[in-house]
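ok here's the first one, seq then struct tokens
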Amino acid sequence: MLLYLIRHAEAEDLGTGAIHRDFDRPLTAQGRQHAQALARAFIRMNLPVDTVVSSPLVRAYQTAKELLTLWHPDDRPVTCDELALDRLKPAKLSSFLAELPARGERSPSRGEKAIAAVGHMPDVGSYLAWLLGAAPGSIHMAKAAVACVWFKTIPSRAEGELRWLVSPDWFV
């Protein structure tokens, strides 16, 4: 299984306009551009994505929608509460991701499913550290950054192999 862990793109600050709850913070124009640039980079690199999973918070969900606009225009993100701020339960999130079905045709080179999960710091960094067996709090991801982690079977503690981790500077 391939897992792309993505931190949401840049969002409006709390208190901007009519935004009074952290949950409701939408992406900025630059945030939308970064999400679209990330989607285009995946297409250029021919990276597979079966399903996009998102935190229910507006900024993460909008990031996921921007990605899907180019990857799978008819699809909507699957929401997962474990990707919301302060809701991370790594084993439960791993089980949820492992149970998502693979989509599309499979070939010998594409036997594994590929899931993109969009969440928030510090939880995305904490989950990545848990998957890699790294020290808690040791991984920081910039807004719109993505990490690609490979698993022999399902996402489990200290079983992930980090293939790459890039920030928007690499694809914008």
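and now the second one, same deal
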Amino acid sequence: MVSQVNPPRGMRDFLPAEKARREAILAVIRSSYRAHGFAEIETPVAEDSERLHAGLGGDNEKLAFGILKRGAEFEAALATAKTPLDLADLGLRFDLTVPLARFYATHRAELPMPFRAIQIAPVWRAERPQKGRFRQFVQCDIDIIGEAGPLAEVELLSATAATLRRLGVEGFTIRVNDRRLLTAMLDEFGFAPEERDGVLVTVDKLDKAGVEGVIAELRERGSTPAAVEALGAFLNRPQTREYRPFGEGQIRKALPSDLEDPAIGELAAIGEAVIAATGGDEQIVRYDPWLVRGMGYYTGPIFEVAHPDLGYSFGGGGRYDGMIGRFLGDDVPAAGISLGFERLVDLVDLPGDGTEHAIAVVYDQAAPPAVIVAARDRFVAEGRPVRLVRRPKQLAKALDALAADGVLEFVLVDRDSDPSTLEPRPLDRH
């Protein structure tokens, strides 16, 4: 006896109406990205386990689903395995960046330089299911490989902003920072290089834990006491909160006064260019000196996309110049941004979902299959989505359900119908 008929925890089924809505939103995203010069690729859902656990994916590596070895290989591994990873030779991808790096390393001779890629596909993580987090979810990525200058970041952020606007999403903000500035600040406060990663993990909790919580955790971690005190004093310094247009002055005001780094000017130029590309909307880009992004592979500018209606970001990315070199032996500059589709979809209300011209062919059980199919094919040839619906006893209820699903018209087909003379009737007038 089957005890459960629900999908696995953290994974979902989608009924036809919701699936159509999701596909309509994805169609807008694809169209917008293509219009900005990106080309779509596809990679396998599985990658070699060693590649997925090569230190490129940060904490997400701990959430990767493994695929066990098979047959004799599994039996041999079972006898010698020291960890569960020793039993797996493949794993489900936990993001689309590691597969892209492998893809480029495999196909670079066939690709243009720079290469602008779209990837829209599901990924899998062994998350604890909760609001906004699933074990299977769709990511919408664009990446630029081979562009070392700030043009890549400007392209990525302006294309993202344009795509969100095409979806009707207003009020979003792109927060930006640079990992080089974070490193420079930690050095300024006196943290040792080997402390940086752990300190940034704690600093990333500022929004939730507050200054006192972060300082207390750093003390518990045994971080350099003088550096912790310097960081605490800086975070607690008097600050004005008035709005300032994005620029070098805004960035410098948020940093220690004597900190100098080329990243300051570069980041300011990126933000100013994105504002100009989006029609001068100064609300779009914000500098956040404590934006961390958990992935250890980021080497320069980083960004997150936020919206006041959500309590979490729904997109993010940055520059990851060292990743592809791990596969090739030669460093290749790269930057990308990802929109989390499951979070984004809650913000989108498109006027149509792709079924706005749909028609229902409602047929009697006695109607010959050839007549039913001929009626269907007539409307398909006109470029209209068609639903074949067996006529129920309560026709009115069935038509109401079709109308609720976005079907606008219907025809009735019986034994004597001539498909060429059928006249569609609007569903709101039945």
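notes on #2: The radius of gyration is 27 Å. The mean pLDDT is 89.
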